Amino acid sequence: MMHRSPGGPGLLRRALLAGTAGVLAAAGLAGAAGTADAASTLGASAAAKGRYFGTAVAAGHLGESAYASTLDTEFTAVTPENEMKWDAVEATRNSFNFASADQIVAHAQGKNMKVRGHTLVWHSQLPGWVGGLSAIDLRTAMNNHITQVMTHYKGKIYAWDVVNEAYQDGSSGARRSSPFQDKLGDGYIEEAFRTARSVDPNAKLCYNDYNTDGQNAKSNAVYAMVKDFKQRGVPIDCVGFQSHFNSASPVPSDYRANLQRFADLGVDVQITELDIEGSGSAQATSYTNVVNACLAVTRCTGITVWGITDKYSWRSSGTPLLFDGNYGKKAAYTAVLSALGGSGSGGGGGGTASCTAAYSLTQSWNGGFNGQVTVTAGSAAITGWTVTVTVTPPQKVSATWNGTPSWDSSGNVMTMKPNGNGNLAAGASTSFGFTVTSNGTTTAPKVGSCTAS
Ligand code: G3I
């Protein structure tokens, strides 16, 4: 299980700087931030695909110039990493402190970025007093918290994580124990959403969770809840998929399908806390897969990474983000930019052009088979690649796709190059396929090494 449980509740985060009232542009209308070329930043590239590209932001880092300039150049949305949580804004009952969160909202509005509100009702980072309330009092406190916080930010928030992480991990599909669940019962989620809608009818209302990124017992339970809400008219607009990945919990193979099945319920889907531990091309490929999944789902409205630089990540030792500790663009950055259709010109892993080729059998039948070769760029972007595929006589290659083949005089060695443009961002992949007529021999083809240019 990759997800680390967060630190204990009750941390009072006091604002160091005076907040700004932030009466600026209306929320939800942000276009591409910054002045960079149309497709040379994450935000601009995503905007060209009709999506936002956001990051979690900590108010305490906004004064660091490289942090702020990377934020302002690359991102079109922000999520306060901790500043809107219950312990930050209402550490003492009915005494609200919005200073740190206001700083982030004001910064975002000044740059025309969307703001995701995170989060109203969550079992973690909950001040101790909440757990001590009776059921009746807790219900009042929950609705008051939602009302006060959403009223303060009314008109400035694109989407709220109204309820966060309400389900257990594992195979039970059950609700997680929390003061809300234990005292108010299953209905608290519905109540939270109904209250939220009444306060700010223009904010999108999301349910947000982790380990729901593929189809499993937990995501099935969330799916059933969302389906029920939609059927009964309980106001819900979106589902957030946190997407904290590492080698023990990789990007699920059914990630896109899972996003799509939620979208098919009539809600937007958003990737809300993306980070992927690792480095180099493996990390870059995983990021590419996530971006491609979102782009393949029409109702996937945006992607938020959970921090800008590895040095401030909640799991910094796993280097899970797109910028290294010196704000250098990692291979993962270039891969994301490229997957978003961006220019990929801005650095990204350095090094010389290289690639790898991996063969897999995709289909076989009596008399033949289909093979696929996946070509993956190394730690630098490449502009072309060449891979040889050798079949064993009397086998013959009878068809090819997604590549331009040429043949040696024997007809057994096929040299495959890209169809047209061979650009691959660092760590990014493409594949070509071919059909082999066996002529009585089922030996697998030999795939030579990949040559990059
Ligand atoms: O700011 C204090 C600092 O003053 C103090 O010296 C230090 C000592 O521990 O703690 C600092 O606060 C920490 C805070 O992050 C800011 O860095 C808290 O201890 C720590 O618990 C808190 O962790 C946050 C975690 O949520 C808490 O649950 C992470 O930053 C934040 O990234 C993480 O975010 C969550 C999402 O909200 C929900 N999904 C999972 C995700 C990752 O856990």
Q: Topology as H/E string?
A: HEHEHHEHHEHHEHEEHEHEHEEEEEEEE
Give the distinct bound molecules. Answer: ligand G3I
Structural class based on helices, strands and sheet pairing: alpha/beta
Low-pLDDT residue spans = 1-38, 345-350
Offer a quick outline of the entry:
It contains twelve helices and 17 strands. By secondary structure, the protein is an alpha/beta fold.
Q: In words, what does this structure look like?
A:
The chain is of the alpha/beta class and 453 residues long. The protein is built from twelve helices and 17 strands. The protein has helices spanning 42-48, 65-74, 86-89, 99-110, 128-131, 135-152, 179-184, 188-199, 217-232, 255-263, 280-296, 331-339, and strands at residues 52-57, 77-80, 114-122, 159-164, 204-209, 238-241, 244-245, 268-276, 300-305, 355-365, 368-377, 385-390, 396-401, 404-407, 413-417, 429-437, 446-452. The strands form three sheets. An eight-stranded parallel beta barrel has the order 1-2-3-4-5-6-8-9, surrounded by six helices. A four-stranded antiparallel β-sheet has the order 10-11-16-13. Strands 14-15-12-17 form a four-stranded antiparallel β-sheet, with no helix packed on it. Strand 8, helix 11 and strand 9 (300-305) form a beta-alpha-beta unit. Helix 11 (280-296) packs parallel to helix 12 (331-339). The model is unreliable at 1-38 and 345-350 (pLDDT under 50).
